[in-house]
Amino acid sequence: MSEAVPIVAGKPADRSLAIAYPAPGTYVAGASSSFARNAALALLPILATLPLAALVLRIGPGQVVEAFGRLFSEGRGLPALAFGLKQAAGSSLVALLVGLPGAWIFATWRFPGRSLARALALLPFCLPPVLVALGFVQYYGRNGIVNQVLSGFGLPGFGAIGFLYSLPGLCLVHGFYNFPLVLDLVGSALSGIAPTRSEAARSLGAGRLRAFFAGTLPGILPSILEAAALSFLFSFFSFVVVMLFAPLGSATTETEIWRLYRLEGDPAGATALALVQTFLALMILGLLAFGASRLSAPSSEGVAGRESRKPGPIGWIAIAGYGFTLAVLFFGPLLMVLFGSLTDRQAFGAASFPAIGSWLRVLGSGLLARALVDTLVSALPAALIATACGFVLANLWKGNRMRADSLASLPLAISGVVAAAGWSLLLPTAGLWAVILVEALIALPFSLKTSLHALSLLKEEGAEAARSLGASPLQALLRIRLPAILPSLLSSLAFSFALAAGDATTPLVLGVPDFEPLPLAIYRLAGAYRFPEACVLGVVLALLSGFAFRAKGWTFFHA
After folding, report:
1. Does some domain include residue 306?
2. CA nearest 21: which of 299, 373, 285, 385?
3. Any idea of the CA torsion for 270, 271, 273, 274, to the nearest 10 degrees?
4. What is the pLDDT of residues 309-356, one digit of tens each?
5. What CA–CA distance (Å, rounded) separates 412 from 445?
6. Considering the domain boundaries, does residue 12 fall inside one?
């Protein structure tokens, strides 16, 4: 039976958060027709590109070309593109600077509370972006706790210089959201590296630094590049965080597409920018696939990986310093969501803490009940659809594993705004079902890669024995493979639910009447400076996502 793998199977091991290129391996699926395999291989690329194709065909290629020239001649396209690339590059750099030391610490040293500390370090990757943004507003905002503390010491606060609502602040928020990807990817690669190459270099007289470059770096370089590329892509497609924290007058291609499509009634301009954005994302995924095939880590099959050791004085200093940095810079904002929900502020009057006035107002108005119901009726079906489709497609896709992984990554090149806008044209009267479909497609690549990796670890003797006894392919699938990888499917279901429950982009772009799930309600309340009420809904959203993983047994956090 296959061991439960993380929510998103990755290259280094079944402990990885990565969403691209799981560990090499093939699996032998049940017999299926060539037509079914080819149809399954073509299904996901078609679904991924259909929204963008719908936008182009609905508007007309000629109008899109004309809008392309108009936008870039008027000076709107290039600034949005330049700022989007700049903030994505800066965000990836922050994620690397924060994630790489953590990867080294968790892979090198063994200390009490290590598993819990690693679980907390990986937590931000599972949180909804709107919740992370809300915490940073409460912590680093003009009236945030950091500014108040610094002002109490007579020092200028961050809010006075506009730290949060600037390019560095935007990169900090994105770096917080993506550094767990770096930590887990590179940390898993470090843990799996056999120490023989570094030891050989040391035995030949090389120093620690030279031995690292000769023996360790080649093994972790693919994971570093992979994590950097994925962090770049996630930041490039960021929407809610950019809308809240981008400097005044600045926009990325993602936010500019939304403004053109929803606010300015210029679908041709939005489509022109979407084509540019998708082309760049495809280039990043292509470079990632090329790098994965060229920069393969040295094989250590059959060799014990890196063994962690008890830290010495320097190790304890590094662990304490890293933990303190994360607690002050990054996890303080998350605690501020809980703190803010227990703060009662009427208009611009003095705030009181602890107080439950914000909870009473949200409960009494019925806002919480409506938002919670809207979240469940959209996120649960989306998660079930994504998990079921991922499992079925994984069983149909066989043969060239790299090709299947590349096709599974293709939907990542289509942003949430573009997907929602395209499907709103294809399904103009679908309403809630359009939201469910788009959120399921967003989660599908993650679910599919999880099932692909779980099946690659599954031994096929049981399925073959069942087939030899007369079981049909469907019976072997449901009775043998499905129970064997059920823990992985439950992990996939939990993560898919968290993704859908925390998605504010799709309902915001589609604009379904009388539909306001928790993330959209939080975004609206934060925009109206009703931060205590927004924090109340944020706590509920965090508990909802946490309950999904807790019900699964926290397979995701097993180190």
Report:
1. no
2. 285
3. 110
4. 788 888 899 999 998 988 888 888 888 888 888 887 654 455 666 778
5. 8
6. no
Give 430-436 contacts, CB < 8 A, sequence gap 24+.
Answer: 431/512, 431/513, 431/515, 432/377, 432/378, 432/512, 432/515, 434/510, 434/512, 435/378, 435/382, 435/506, 435/507, 435/510, 435/512, 435/515, 436/378, 436/381, 436/382, 436/385
Question: What token pair was written down for 160?
Answer: 């006075």
Copy the structure tokens of residue 202: 């040391």
E strand or H helix at 344, and its extent?
A: strand 344-345
What is the extent of the structural domain holding 109? 34-297+312-557
Q: Is residue 14 part of a domain?
A: no
Beta strands in 80-143 (DSSP E): none
The answer to whether 495 and 4 are in contact (CB under 8 A) is no
Which class for 171: exposed (0-12), middle (13-18), buried (19 or more C-beta within 10 A)?
A: buried
Q: Give the angle 250-255-258 at the CA atoms, nearest 5°.
A: 140
Total count of domains within the chain = 1
Q: Is the dihedral of CA 113, 115, 116, 120 positive or negative?
A: positive
Two structure tokens written together for 543: 């508990």
pLDDT tens for 513-526 read 889 999 999 888 88
Crossing angle for the helix pair 145-152 and 129-140, to the nearest 10 degrees: 10
Does the pLDDT value for residue 13 go beyond 60?
A: no
Residue 213 token pair: 């470059």
